[in-house]
Amino acid sequence: MASSERKILVSDIARMCGVSITTVSKVINGRGDVSDKTREKIEKVLDEVGFSKPLSSTKITNTIEIVMTHMANNGTIAITRACAFQVKDKPIGITITEVGEGDEGTDNALMGLLDRNPLGVIIMMSAVSDHAKNLLVSRSIPFVILDPIEEVEDRYCTVGIDNWSAGFNATNHLLRLGHRNIGTLTGPKNTQSSLARFAGYTAAMSNAGLAWEDLPTARGDYQAEPAYHAACELLDRPDRPTAIFAFNDLSAVCVYKAAHERNIRIPEDLSVVGFDNVYPSKYMAPALTTIDQPFDLMAKKAIDMILEAREHDGKVSEPHIVLPAKLIIRDSTAVPTGASAAPDDIDI
């Protein structure tokens, strides 16, 4: 994470950009009285050299900041609660920052976060810009990205799950029950978690000798409204799937609603598998078969990484952790009407 090389000074940046030290300091500290052109020039050089602002004059606050796009997803709520539980016996507080959509909100929130100089940052966002990462690295603030959506880098830490295996196992469960027309309700476009879950799904389907390219897929973005419309799209198809693998539990809830509106019974007419195992999955009627994400362990690993980085000058013994996810079989999946489950000796 933190570099052991000589720190670049503000005076070095000023000389490289042909501006005053005062102007560089204004950009570093988020002041607004600098032209956009000059700011962009300075920020570009800061990013290129990995500038690290001395923090000796800024007291580290005993907080870990959780940064997220929205707190509407039960997965983010579960992680936040797990983080709070992990530090309940420590003199550490948890601060939540919602940044909303778009880079502007993220950058504004990030500047405030840098001024507070927290112990560390846990990031749960659909995208983290290089600019945001560079600023955190330059200030030597340890940060952990949960369930990263892109290829990871050695200069920061990540904690995620084996989304490919989880997608494979969820699909395999439906195949073993005898389903062949299995639809997917995916997450946001181009996010690693959704892509990996879909890759696991396609691998399972291919292993069963099925042409997954012809099977129904709709994008739900992990959010209620788009997931509901995507579920309606799947259930209104002439070749309606006999099973749907929803890429988060919130999307599965939307499948239940769309199915109820169409008098489609679960699991008699439609099997449903979710992903997360968060409230209210086990209280749904019928109780939801889903993939269990180990949120408690993810929170513990993230906080341990931050504390280790603070104690060892930015160094972490295991910076990238991938945890297993487990299939929880409940009542929302069954053998499709008129079919029989695959024999145990069939290679699925």
UniProtKB/TrEMBL annotation:
Domain HTH lacI-type: 12-51
Listed GO MF terms: DNA-binding transcription factor activity; transcription cis-regulatory region binding
Keywords of the record: DNA-binding, Transcription, Transcription regulation
Keyword DNA-binding attributed: yes
The organism's place on the tree of life at top rank: Bacteria
InterPro entries: HTH_LacI (IPR000843), LacI/GalR-like_sensor (IPR046335), Lambda_DNA-bd_dom_sf (IPR010982), Peripla_BP_I (IPR028082)
The name this protein goes by in its record: LacI family transcriptional regulator
